[in-house]
C-alpha cells in the first residue's frame, strides 16, 4: 500500500475538550509521488510539551518548550512543502533543510492512503481518534476538515481557496442577455477600463473581444488572461490563435494545468468573469466565444450575464483571481500566429436591451467553496422557481441532482416550479439526457399532482443556437447568474463563478427573458419533439415518391 503523500491536521483550541485541542483537518493522499510533501497543521495557543501525534505505529513530539500561537505547520520535507504551497513549514520530519527545525520522531508516522487512523495524545490521554475509511472517505489530494461538527462539508483539495459566504449591499448592476446585448455590455465595460483588466474564462476564441482587450492594453491598461489549460477536447486552434494575438500585443495569457510542480487546483477552471479597475465585475454563463457574445443582430446562445459596480465586490473577485492565477499549476499558454476570424452566424432580432438597477444585494457563489448557496436559494423559495439550464444530470441512476431534488421538494410544499432545458442535438441524442430528464420531471409532477413542469427549449422558434444558461429565478426577487452546470462535477470540483442578485427589477428582467424562452417552448414545436415527426414525414414522402415512380414506370411499360 502506497503511503500518504500529504496529511493535513488542524488542531483548534476549544474550551472544554481534553487538553483544549482537537483534530479538525487532515489529508491522507496528496498528489506528489513518494510522499515528500506530507504535512500537519496545528492551531491553538500554548506550550506543546506532552503532545504526541501517532498513527499507532510511529509518531513524533516537539522539542521542549515549543509554543504555538495560531497555526504551526509540520511537513515531512520542507522543500517539498514549499514547492506545493509557496512557503516553508515551521517544522519538518525529515532533515531536508537547515532552514527548518525538526520534530522529535519515535518510529515513523506514515498514514496509509486507503485505510489508517490518526491518534492525538496529551501525555497519556487520548484526545481524539480519526479513522478512514469511516470518519472520512479518502481521495487523492483531498484535505479533510471538520466544520461545525461535520466532516467534509464540501470537497477540498490541496491548493484550493477556502472562501466563506459574503454579501455586498448597494451594488449597481446591469443585467444583460445573450445573444441580444451581451457583446454590447462587454465592449462598453472594456472600453471604459483605465488601469487593469483581469480575465478568467474557460475558453476564449472570439476575434472582436480579443481586439477590445488589445485596444485596452494599447491605452495603458494592464491586462492579464487566465484560461483553462485542458478544456474538453483540448485548447482549440481558434483559442491558440487568440492566445498568440494577445501575447504579441503584450498581454500575458496564463493557463491552469497539472504540471511537474503542482497538480491543477480544480478539475476545470470553468469560471467566466473579468474584473476592471478594481471597481467593476462582469460575469455570466458564457465563454468568450462568438456564440456567447455575438455582435448585435447575430444569432448565438441563450445566456445570462451581469455587470456589477462596487469596489468591495470587485476587490473580492480580484483576490479570487490573484489566488487562482498563482502557483505551480499556472503556466503560459502557447499561442499561434494563425489569423483570427469570426464564423458566419444567422441574423437575429434583438428583443432585450440591458437593464440597469441600483441598490442590489449581491452574494458571490464560487464553486467549489460556496456552491451550497444555490441549495439555500432554492430551499428558501416560497412562491416560484424558474430554472433555465443547458442540462441537468443526476448524481447516480438512483439519486437526483441535489439542486433538482431541492426544486422538486419545493413544488411539494406548493412552490410553482418550471424547468427549461436545452434541445440541441448533443443534449438530446443520448439515452439519458435532457429529453429523458424532462420526461422524468413531468412524470413526477403528474403522479403527485405537483405545480411542477419541465420543457425542452424550442431553439428554432426563438432563433437561438443553444441554451447555455445556468440560471435560477426565485420568488421574482432573487436571481442566480453563474457558470455552474447542474452536474456532479461543476459545483464540487471546478472553479466556477456566479452571483445571487436580490433586486426586484433585476429579477423582473431575467423573468421576462425566461418567459420568452418558456412560451416559445410550449411543446407543440420544440426541437426535441419535432425531429421524429420530420423523420416520419420525410420517410413517408420518400415512400410516396417511390410508389408514384413505380406506378409511372409500369404504366409506360404497359
Automatic annotation (TrEMBL):
Range of residues in the leader sequence: none
Q: Does the keyword Transmembrane apply?
A: yes
**What UniProt keywords are attached to this protein's entry?**
Hydrolase, Lipid degradation, Lipid metabolism, Membrane, Transmembrane, Transmembrane helix
| Transferase as UniProt keyword | no
Q: Where are the transmembrane segments?
A: 535-553
Which Pfam families does this entry report, sorted A to Z? Answer: PLDc_2 (PF13091)
Q: Mind telling me what this protein is named?
A: Phospholipase
Coiled coil regions, renumbered to chain: none
Q: Which organism is it from?
A: Methanoculleus chikugoensis
Ranges for domain PLD phosphodiesterase come to: 265-292, 463-490
What InterPro entries does this protein's entry cite? PLD-like_dom, PLD_domain, PLipase_D/transphosphatidylase
Which top-level group of life is the source organism from? Archaea
Amino acid at each position: 500500500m502506497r503511503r500518504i503523500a500529504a496529511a493535513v491536521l488542524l488542531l483548534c483550541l476549544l474550551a472544554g475538550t481534553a487538553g483544549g485541542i482537537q483534530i479538525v483537518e487532515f489529508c491522507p493522499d496528496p498528489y506528489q509521488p513518494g510522499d515528500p510533501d506530507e504535512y500537519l497543521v496545528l492551531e491553538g495557543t500554548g506550550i506543546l510539551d506532552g503532545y504526541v501525534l501517532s498513527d499507532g505505529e510511529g509518531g513524533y513530539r516537539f522539542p521542549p518548550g515549543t509554543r504555538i500561537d495560531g497555526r504551526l505547520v509540520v511537513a515531512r520535507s520542507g522543500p517539498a512543502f514549499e514547492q506545493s504551497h509557496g512557503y516553508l513549514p515551521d517544522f519538518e520530519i525529515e532533515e531536508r533543510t537547515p532552514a527548518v527545525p525538526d520534530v522529535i520522531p519515535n518510529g515513523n508516522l506514515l498514514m496509509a492512503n486507503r485505510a489508517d487512523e490518526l491518534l492525538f495524545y496529551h501525555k497519556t490521554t487520548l484526545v481524539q481518534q480519526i479513522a478512514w475509511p469511516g470518519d472520512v472517505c479518502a481521495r487523492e489530494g483531498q484535505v479533510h476538515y471538520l466544520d461545525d461538527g461535520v466532516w467534509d462539508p464540501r470537497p477540498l483539495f490541496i491548493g484550493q481557496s477556502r472562501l466563506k459566504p459574503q454579501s455586498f449591499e448597494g451594488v449597481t448592476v446591469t443585467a444583460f442577455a445573450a445573444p441580444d446585448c451581451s457583446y454590447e455590455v462587454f465592449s462598453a465595460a472594456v472600453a471604459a477600463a483605465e488601469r487593469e483588466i483581469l480575465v478568467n474564462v474557460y475558453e476564449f476564441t472570439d476575434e472582436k473581444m480579443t481586439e477590445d482587450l488589445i485596444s485596452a492594453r494599447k491605452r495603458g491598461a494592464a491586462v492579464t488572461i487566465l484560461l483553462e489549460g485542458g478544456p474538453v477536447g483540448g485548447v482549440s486552434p481558434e483559442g491558440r490563435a487568440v492566445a498568440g494575438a494577445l501575447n504579441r500585443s503584450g498581454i500575458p495569457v496564463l493557463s491552469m494545468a497539472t504540471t511537474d510542480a503542482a497538480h491543477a487546483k480544480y478539475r476545470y477552471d470553468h469560471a467566466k468573469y473579468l474584473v476592471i479597475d478594481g471597481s467593476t465585475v462582469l460575469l455570466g454563463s458564457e465563454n468568450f466565444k462568438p456564440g456567447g457574445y455575438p455582435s448585435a443582430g447575430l444569432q448565438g446562445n441563450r445566456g445570462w450575464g451581469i455587470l456589477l459596480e462596487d469596489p468591495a465586490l470587485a476587490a473580492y473577485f480580484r483576490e479570487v483571481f490573484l489566488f487562482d492565477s498563482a502557483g505551480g499549476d499556472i503556466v503560459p499558454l502557447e499561442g499561434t500566429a494563425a489569423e483570427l476570424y469570426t464564423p458566419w452566424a444567422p441574423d437575429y432580432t434583438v428583443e432585450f436591451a440591458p437593464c440597469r438597477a441600483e441598490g442590489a444585494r449581491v452574494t458571490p457563489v464560487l464553486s467549489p467553496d460556496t456552491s451550497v448557496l444555490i441549495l439555500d436559494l432554492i430551499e428558501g423559495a416560497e412562491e416560484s422557481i424558474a430554472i433555465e439550464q443547458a442540462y441537468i444530470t443526476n448524481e447516480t441512476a438512483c439519486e437526483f441532482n441535489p439542486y433538482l431534488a431541492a426544486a422538486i421538494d419545493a413544488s411539494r410544499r406548493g412552490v410553482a416550479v418550471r424547468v427549461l432545458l436545452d434541445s440541441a442535438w448533443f443534449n438530446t441524442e443520448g439515452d439519458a439526457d435532457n429529453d429523458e430528464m424532462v420526461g422524468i420531471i413531468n412524470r413526477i409532477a403528474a403522479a403527485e399532482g405537483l405545480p411542477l413542469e419541465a420543457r425542452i427549449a424550442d431553439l428554432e422558434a426563438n432563433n437561438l443556437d443553444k441554451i447555455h444558461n445556468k440560471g435560477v429565478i426565485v420568488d421574482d426577487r432573487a436571481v442566480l447568474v453563474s457558470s455552474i452546470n447542474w452536474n456532479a462535477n461543476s459545483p464540487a470540483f471546478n472553479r466556477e463563478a456566479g452571483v445571487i442578485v436580490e433586486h426586484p427589477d433585476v429579477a423582473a428582467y431575467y423573468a421576462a427573458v425566461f418567459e420568452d424562452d418558456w412560451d416559445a417552448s410550449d411543446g407543440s414545436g420544440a426541437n426535441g419533439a419535432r425531429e421524429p415527426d420530420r423523420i416520419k414525414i420525410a420517410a413517408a414522402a420518400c415512400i410516396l415518391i417511390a410508389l408514384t415512380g413505380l406506378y409511372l414506370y409500369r404504366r409506360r411499360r404497359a
